[in-house]
Amino acid sequence: MGPKFICRKPGPKSVEILERDRKVISPSLTREYSFVFKKAKGCHVWDVDGRKYLDFSAGVAVMNIGHTNPVIEKAIHQQAKNAIHAGFSDFYAELPVKFVEYLLTFLPKHLNKAFLSNSGTESVEAAYKLARWHTNKKWVIAFKPSFHGRTMASLSLTNAKPVQKERFYPFLPVKHALYPYCYRCPFKNKEHDACTNLYLDVLEQKISECDKDLAAIFLEPIAGEGGYIVPPKDFVQGVKELCDKYDILLCDDEVQSGCYRTGEFLAIENFDVKPDIVSLSKAIGGGIPLGATVANEKIMDWLPGSHANTFGGNLLACSAGISTLKFMREKKLGQNATKIGNYMMRRLYEMKERYELIGDVRGIGLMIGVEIVKDKKTKEYGVKERTDILCKASEKGLLLLPAGISSIRICPPLILTKKQADLGLDIFEDSVKEIC
Ligand SMILES: Cc1ncc(COP(=O)(O)O)c(C=O)c1O
What we know:
Blueprint: H1 12-24, E1 37-41, E2 44-47, E3 52-55, H2 58-61, H3 70-82, H4 94-104, E4 113-117, H5 120-135, E5 139-144, H6 152-157, H7 162-165, E6 174-178, H8 192-209, E7 214-219, H9 233-246, E8 249-253, E9 277-280, E10 291-295, H10 315-330, H11 333-354, E11 358-364, E12 367-372, H12 383-395, E13 398-399, E14 401-403, E15 407-410, H13 418-435
Parallel strand pairs: 3-13, 5-6, 5-7, 7-8, 8-9
Antiparallel strand pairs: 1-2, 2-3, 4-10, 9-10, 11-12, 12-15, 14-15
Helix pairs in contact: 3-10, 4-10, 8-9, 11-13, 12-13
């Protein structure tokens, strides 16, 4: 069996690599279409056959500072001349300390200690273990839908696609409450306030089921893989109030939504809520694997040996991390995300009025979801239509990713200009028009 082409047949070099990939790479990965990456710069990527694409996926929300940013190239070159790896879990080194000191200047003041790792799932795994260590309690609550990663604690929290969990049972003790999905609210015909209270009632019910043995609630301030779903502000605030009422830790998963993607450094800041533990990764290393779990020193009270790793505090990653954060601050990427994001949302709202296939548009900053439906009245998921739009857009030179059952996520690098935003949205609109 040859490679499966979801969109049109790719160029000859791509076909050759797809064939080799099929022979040696684990089939567990999910590739939406047959794009074979060659190189990237700023907001553009090229495939191995020389086709150029505007990138509205940012390497899955990683390249916030733009692809192949010279500041990262410089940072890792310079550091590599001195040392690459220090064995930070067993020896001391200045660079990881410097990185964390600098990272803390971006965060609310009460967050003053960090555990370093290499990926999103590890930064969530560390948050989970820290919450259980600190409280010495067993249960945690997460939401449906949610995505927190694929190692066993993160996967226990995750509740998105069945295939992600199938055959991996049993999981750790996690209960799932309902994430507010206003476009598909299960509490139909209720006023907004009433709905929020009903979602919070479900959550409070889950809290009571944990019998005072509940360590933490894990929350994505915007559900990422679940469909770029934005919860109402009073819901997020209500979650925090319940955490305070029952003395539960609030663990904020900012792996996808953090690093200025929503305008604020942490997406949860848009909701005026202070979390107890924060998980960061993806964009924080400027493309180099890096994760950080941050909390107050009173919470980060675990003993030596209770949690550690080999590569956390890697020198190349920390050097890249410092340069990434500096670039984000100096170039005011949060402000750009808000400005360009608001502009794109206005254009997408207009498209929603024009096209039957666009059921919902939602987002904050440059974390934007567009839900594709078969028709607006029934809201039937437009699963095939979503794939067709992604394929059409890629044929026309725009790289997009799916999210949730039938949504498209728009998460470009935060350096995106208005001109590039317009070009991408023109391609997107043409693609929707053709599928309509
Ligand atoms: C919110 C969230 N948490 C955790 C993860 C897991 O990150 P990683 O794939 O780096 O393990 C992801 C990945 O998409 C994510 O979106």
